[in-house]
């Protein structure tokens, strides 16, 4: 919950550059202070672990020391007898399963019959101090019967038994997808050049600076309140009601401001359910704050992904067909994994024209911390593969990589082969910006050995077209209250994770009502107080909660205009709302203050309040799996990375990255720049150093569950970033706005990989691009072998029969047909 | 219980706590100063940085007992009489705080830098802040905020650059 403080709006930024339209807007597009900025720089923001209540207990979780084992017995007798221990839970106390997706309700708050990775929780203790709770964990005796453990997707493919879960498409394969849009073999047969490549993208984690924390409070009147650092309070609300068997109306979830999320706080978590149950049992507030090591076990980060791609192109670069395969290492649970798997095949079609497209995706269960959505959710891996693959194709065709991309761009307002509806599309402009800004034409292929430049592009959704669970209700709701003092309060379920979503609500309402954004109070992410917003994931919040706020504000303006118009004796449609006043557009002096306008309306009609909501447009695809990929709008980015590669050590340094991002329309330009720079930073970490590494030969234990050893860029590794904003407004976005929080991360890894090739002539087809890999590739090059480091095979997968969907230009209607031996032709 | 007297944000504090407690715990749990955050409690991330006699320290690695007679400064002590410190102003205006979790630590590390070096170069800023991790900003807005605050603290009339707020043309 953030209350906007009165501030000096517009004081700083001076005149915006002429390429940003400001004539119409007084707030939108400007670089304003965020509504919660002062709280954050004074330390006043209350994160979950900052909360404390009288008689509060502390919870600790006992975690599995085995990667895969049956639980033979758990004895908690001694732990319960320890002085200060108030309650001990095991799996039997919380037997109802949960999970973020309806199709994979495969988690228990505490493991019931088996453990599936080192770190899986098996018992929970609540005690008067954290030290006592920790001591009690040592007194719990668990007897395990170890099972064979699998540390990679390939191992899971090779061993259908023992199964990690008793559900899934085949053995230890959780999900198998086979979708064909047009006859790809025919397409590839028409090509002048056919190229096949293999890539591997190592898993990485979100590493938010704030460890997950939650506090639960139970009231004797049967009401449960949970404060938690979650990006998705609505989904946590649903999971708590289900697992605790409480009416949802008696459960209140308050998302505290997240100290960084990046997707890592998007699932309902075992620790949230455990403290809620412990609060119910003890009648006392119960808090848990994960240690940094435990955050690595929570994970839900980037899926390690092996990819194979085969593309046919004409001499001019036009793609005739593309076949893409991905194999994801999902870790121990479902999480968002089914969606992640679809995402590894969904967005290959939204940047360059792909007339025929075949996607096969598989997700394996392994005995590692579960993977899920990390910034870019399932799309950075295939984007890395595609953009490096295109770089190789450009070289073979002897076409400049920028030129190749410009020739094959997807047109705006079009439908792709897999039925994604493209609206505004500013990628061409983005490419031109970074090519010009970086001096690409004087650098590419022309820098001295050891230095190079690489180019890559990307696109990302501005919110998913479908909700996590099937329903036909809005994705975002806003209530708006106008106070007779002139203040306006916005209530919305959206969750502030540092991206500025609270501020977006204030800016949009202020713009429509012509008031100062710091006169808008913002109440968010509280299931008792705010209408549902699905959460801060899939880059959906600015577009969806923004549209809901826009509708609520426009409705309020209509109410106020009617009554102000009566008083001013002008037609309501002639009124302007600006500068804190409501006035005749033809005679500015004829007007009332905004507060007076509220008072006039309130006197005539009673309390002035409105609602707004937003539901995305229907997807064009009707085939099974068509739910992943559609979005109201797609953002676009182009990126040039410059690198220095030391051939002696293999160390890659990145001095500068140029990035252009098509955001549609900035709501707050400074926030957009901040999201771009943050995305580049996170992408640079993935490109060069970040990896979730496990010791396969030592029980699949995490190698480096600490901030020291899990390497992430410090100030000394971070590059300079030159950002260009391209504003190609999309009719589906509020004021034309599209996403910015995730898309600019995507092109960084392939741009760096392409630049390494330009610098030293070796291909590292795998991230992170570590010195060891660069050196190995350089050694091969010296020996005259294939100057490459990367995977060399893709395992055999028991793919199901393909679902065939005719592309729009082949007379398709978006429906799919699957031909199997058992059912000759089934439409879905 | 141990009892110590020390100075916190310019005020004398007498506080009793279990002797094993770190300065981080004493500040957050016994003095209610939750503006000081933690990211690892192992001295790896810099998030719990406070100033001890003007020098940045990791409060998770300092015993509370060791602070007896010393002066500690936390983020709560930066604003004066309702007026933000120049660093707080520029961090707020440039968006150098996104989630805001690492922000108190960066502010204090930057304040110590500017006390010792009123006109740091970009590289000197990077060196001074290299022990603090931020996952949101990519550090760039933080550098710019430190540079802008430094200029203002030197008495210069300085504004953010257009590129910083609106990007390059």
Brief write-up:
The complex is a heterodimer of chains A (828) and B (169). Chain A is α+β, with helices and mostly antiparallel strands and 828 residues long. Chain A contains 19 helices and 36 strands.
Could you please describe the fold and organization of this structure?
The complex is a heterodimer of chains A (828) and B (169). Chain A is an alpha+beta fold and 828 residues long. In chain A, 25% of the residues lie in helices and 25% in strands. In chain A, the strands form nine sheets. In chain A, strands 32-8-13-14-15-7-34-35-36 form a nine-stranded mixed β-sheet. Chain A has a seven-stranded mixed β-sheet with strand order 3-5-1-12-9-10-11, with helices on both faces. With 169 residues, chain B is an alpha+beta fold. Chain B has two domains: 76 residues, Beta-grasp domain (Ubiquitin-like (UB roll), Roll), CATH 3.10.20.30; 81 residues, Orthogonal Bundle (DNA polymerase, domain 1). In chain B, 34% of the residues lie in helices and 15% in strands. Chain B has six helices and five strands; from the N terminus they run E-E-H-E-E-E-H-H-H-H-H. Chain B has a five-stranded mixed β-sheet with strand order 2-1-5-3-4, sandwiched between helices. In chain B, helix 2 runs antiparallel to helix 5. Chain B is elongated and about 60 Å long. The termini of chain B are far apart. Classes of the chains: A alpha+beta (828), B alpha+beta (169). Chains A and B meet through helix 1, helix 17 and strand 30 of A and helix 2, helix 3, helix 4, helix 5 and helix 6 of B.
How do the helices and strands line up, and which of them pair or pack?
The complex is a heterodimer of chains A (828) and B (169).
Chain A: H1 37-41, E1 57-63, E2 69-75, H2 77-81, E3 85-90, E4 114-115, E5 121-127, H3 130-137, E6 141-146, H4 153-158, E7 173-181, H5 184-189, E8 193-201, E9 213-219, E10 223-228, H6 233-244, E11 251-255, H7 270-282, E12 286-289, H8 292-298, E13 305-313, E14 319-329, H9 337-346, E15 357-364, H10 380-397, H11 401-407, E16 414-415, E17 421-422, H12 427-438, H13 440-443, E18 451-461, E19 476-482, E20 488-492, H14 501-513, E21 520-524, H15 541-568, E22 575-578, E23 581-584, E24 587-593, H16 594-605, E25 608-614, E26 634-645, E27 652-662, H17 669-688, E28 694-695, E29 701-702, E30 720-726, H18 748-760, E31 763-764, E32 766-767, H19 771-782, E33 788-789, E34 803-805, E35 816-818, E36 826-827
Parallel strand pairs in A: 1-12, 7-34, 8-32, 10-11, 14-15, 20-21, 27-30, 31-33
Antiparallel strand pairs in A: 1-5, 2-4, 2-6, 3-5, 7-15, 8-13, 9-10, 9-12, 13-14, 16-17, 18-26, 19-20, 19-25, 22-23, 23-24, 26-27, 28-29, 34-35, 35-36
Helix pairs in contact in A: 6-7, 10-18, 14-15, 15-16, 17-18
Chain B: E1 2-8, E2 11-17, H1 23-30, E3 49-52, E4 55-58, E5 71-73, H2 86-94, H3 103-116, H4 122-129, H5 140-153, H6 162-166
Parallel strand pairs in B: 1-5
Antiparallel strand pairs in B: 1-2, 3-4, 3-5
